[in-house]
Amino acid sequence: MRFSIFSLLRHAIGGTPWPEQWRSPEPKAAYDVVIIGAGGHGLATAYYLAREHGIRRVAVLERGWLGGGNTGRNTTVIRSNYLRDESAAIYEHALKLWETLAQELNYNVMYSPRGVMMLAHSVHEAQVFKRHVHANRLNGVDNEWLTPSEAKAFCPPLNISPDLRYPILGAALQRRGGVARHDAVAWGYARGANALGVDIIQNCEVTGISRMPSGPVNAVETTRGRIAARKVAVVAAGHTSVVLAMAGVRMPLESYPLQALVSEPVKPVLPCVVMSNSIHAYISQSDKGELVIGAATDAYVSYSQAGGLHVAEHTLEAICELFPTFRRLRMLRNWGGIVDVTPDRSPIIGLTPVPGLYVNCGWGTGGFKATPGSGHVFAATIARGEPHPIVAPFALERFRTGALIDEAAAAAVAH
Amino acid sequence: MLLIDCPWCGARPENEFRYGGEAHIARPQDAASLDDAAWTAFLYMRNNPKGRHAERWRHIHGCGRFFNCLRDTVSDRIEATYKPGEPAPQ
User: Which of A54, A91, A326, B17 has the least C-beta neighbours within 10 A?
Assistant: First the structure.
């Protein structure tokens, strides 16, 4: 069924329950492509495989529940103002898809381009951000420099007093940046992929990757039996190292807990997304009214999905300094997601040394914003068996050639 | 916050320490003779296990010395700490 004002009215008046949005099928014996991980990136990959490449014998396997990993745990910030040409290309590709995603999927993903403002607190940082602004403009990505008073005008609750411990010297603003509803992105892609024939199989943990004697993958072993596959795509975020170890592939990844927290809901007070890399503050307001706050990663490798309280406390200290009016807000919940971080803070997308085995990982602390673009170009890579032009620079091979894409300084979270 | 047992100073809170990454990665003696794959493995490839992890820590706000630590990466429980040069406890 399609969602429309008429279907909404019919269900509101008729009181009939909404039908399920995707099936929960038993796994078949074989598929053309098996995708490991039903988060936003994996589901988007399945959707574009079916929609743009006509590959419909696709299964998406999920250890837990759909969208229950980092897709449901991030702070939903979307922007594309990355420094390097390669990064700008993939994140801008994603941003363009965000703009029409709700119409494309017939599902309201609540994309809200309310502006993402990144604060500069030192002369050095101001110079770096201005360099970003220029680099972005050369790549056709909108980004502009604001003085402190212009930043205050754009975001009235911001404290621009020169008496701050880390005073605000200016800000870079991407107006097309913003937020979207993270769950709706996973649900929308799941519904779209399901309608095109993709099997989404939850509660199905992959326990092994099977290879032919000559090398290529031919199946995955799961808690629900063996599933044959011509191609296997691993989109497992923080667990990528664990899954690829099953195929004997080592990865340049380390997994860290990244925390987020939300406040009690309040009336609209914060009109945009505000980020400060140097004092670790990342904040926006959800449509429910909660302030959504991103904290830093823990210092050490972990799969605990929790994170230390002192890490969140550090972020709240910065938020309270930037927004004195938020000091009396109570925090409702905090949680962690396991992010897979690469040495150059750029993702790894494409082929692996094992024929038929593909990987999309290493999005670190900022993968949500790339969801549509990542799925789109990864699907093309799997369908053709060779890297899509946008993902070619992000190959695993770059760690051997040395052609790293250094986004450590440009990433949202200072690592 | 972890409570970490520095082999020299005893148990101290995590924020006295700096994490130093995976332990027991020895820099190749004769780097010039390595091929690109071996150099890549040394520089970038990490075990990143879900379970027992041998890692380095440095007591920066204490004695300043490096040491190694065995920790479970699911529970974050620290099994043992030991001095550099000592083998990992079994």
Answer: A54
Q: Is residue B40 part of a domain?
A: no
Q: Give the residue among A258, A257, A323 at the shortest CA–CA distance from A284.
A: A323
| Host domain of residue B55 | 1-24+49-90
> How is chain B classified by DSSP, letter by letter?
--EEEETTTEEEEGGG-EEEEES--PPPTTGGG--HHHHHHHHT-B---SSEEEEEEE-TTTT--EEEEEEETTT--EEEEE-TTSPPP-
Nearest to A304 among B22, B40, B74 (CB): B74
- A238 burial (CB, 10 Å; 0-12 / 13-18 / 19+) is buried
Inside any domain, residue B5: yes
Identify which of A19, A136, A23, A14 has the alpha carbon closest to the alpha carbon of residue A82. A136
Q: How many domains does chain B divide into? A: 1
User: Residues 354-413, chain A: which have Cβ within 8 Å of B?
Assistant: 399-401
Q: Do A241 and B19 touch (CB under 8 A)?
A: no
- Tens digit of pLDDT for each residue in A172-193? 999 999 999 999 999 999 999 9
Rounded to two decimals, the ipTM of the complex is 0.96
Q: Is residue B31 part of a domain?
A: no
- Alpha carbon distance A12, B54 (integer Å): 58
| Domains by residue range for chain A, with CATH | 5-73+182-252+344-401 (3.50.50.60), 116-175+254-341 (3.30.9.10)
- Across the interface, whether the CB atoms of B49 and A310 are under 8 A apart is answered no
CB A67 within 8 A of CB A186: yes
Q: Is the pLDDT of residue A415 over 50?
A: no
Written as one letter, the residue type at B83 is K
| Residue B41 covered by a domain | no
pLDDT digits (tens, 9 = 90+) for A100-109: 999 999 999 9
CATH number of the structural domain spanning residue B59: 3.30.2270.10
How far is it, in rounded angstroms, from Cα A56 to Cα A36? 16
Name residue, tokens 């309608």.
A195
- Whole-number pLDDT of residue A414: 45
**Which residues in chain B are contacts of A309 at CB distance < 8 A?**
1
